[in-house]
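Protein 1 of 2
SEQ + STRUCT:
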Amino acid sequence: MPDPLPQLTLSAARDLIARRCFEAAPASQNGVPASHGRVGLECEWHVRPLLAPTDDVPLDELRSWLTPLAPLPGGSSITYEPGGQLELSSAPCTGVGAAIKSMAADRDLVTGLLEEHAVELVATGVDPLRAPRRQLMAPRYDAMEAFFDLDGPEGRMMMSRTASVQVNLDAGASEEMAEQRWRLVHRIGPPLAAAFANSPVALGKPTGWRSTRLANWFAMDATRTAPAYRPGVGPCESWVEYALAARVMLIRTGGDCYQPIRDGMTLADWLERGHPAGWPTEDDLDYHLTTLFPPIRPRGWLELRFLDALPDPWWRVAAAVTTACLDDEVCAGAAEQATEDIGHLWCEASSLGLTHPALAQAAESCFEVVLENVRHLGLDATTEAACADYFDRYVARGRCPADDWM
């Protein structure tokens, strides 16, 4: 909550943001391969009744069914997005194989229970049928919605009708490694977003985008949704400048009261000039960082937020291939060569998918090297087979799941 007097200088805020964004990962020890770094998965789904797919499942009912399942066998936590989307978040695991195994166990248990209530989990980047409708009613979400409404309807869609597969990976064990991984993840982002695009329909109609979810994000406030990468600039400096230049979304003014900020004030503005509500504290700075949504976000680790939600078993493939392209030395080297000069093609990835020649070529190269080295990744047989099937069905043909809808 803001303070009546200045608490942070601009220089102190820079230092705090830099310390928050990159945390050195533990180096490989005891013979554990470098490809088996820490991996966390967050999978989201739209939840709807089987017999009434345009209706919502009341969140109170959903909670009453799922809360007794805790703790889940794989260790995932259960949370809910504002529209009632269900999210499972795994604990950090050693290697992507362990993360997939944990998520699969928890997903299967939740899916089975919901089927008993005639409820299904829908894995698409955007709900294909339902209009935005928020179920979580809290002052914080009210203020967030009011802020987004200044720029158009995309904020409401994002809050209540989007879903993703998020992969969380170590930032790097050294400053040099962090810089390499920051550069590489922004290069592989567009071809992998294109390869796994799965949201071409919204409100029952084709949108003209392979990933309507990504298009929706990029149509929002660019100060918090555009990529944070700056060529030739280190990751910490890039992120500090990004965070300072982002508009302040809301200010907590006391208790459970939040004020949306409608005048375009950035974090740097707030630090330098204050606001009638007060001056930002360290807690205000930390909250501001949670309201930034670029496709790759550093939070002491790397959050890869560019993948659409995918049905089983394709979410396994997205997790495995994305992780391998960063964590496996051979795959990462090949991915860096294959993705030169395409890291800016986010719009093309969301609109064209793998019909874009450069994105198709890069995705195919990444998949090929992962498949050649798949035995080193610690994957179960189901995930290994799914990776090969996905390549044959989609990537080798210049297609993505969105093309199945067209």
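Protein 2 of 2
SEQ + STRUCT:
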Amino acid sequence: MQAKDELVEQIGETYGYVTNLFDKKMEEYKLAAAEKSALTASKLITAIVMTILLVIMASFGLIALAFYLGGDMNNTAWGFAMVALIMLLLMIIVYLLR
């Protein structure tokens, strides 16, 4: 009877160890998933902010170029038209080379 009691006790301890190990592994997977999602979100937010800043910088650069060309031609409208034409040509080239 004592051997049976010891066996039941050992099975209970083993079950407790397995349950504890399972809980630890689940916690580890949850933490790994949280870390990966936080890293992905961080990269996404950084990419969005950088894209917005790039668009703003390009816009100001194109406006400055338009005013510069307009000053050289003594007609600001022609400067903006030249920049628009350059952008149209770039768009056509990108479309053809896709």
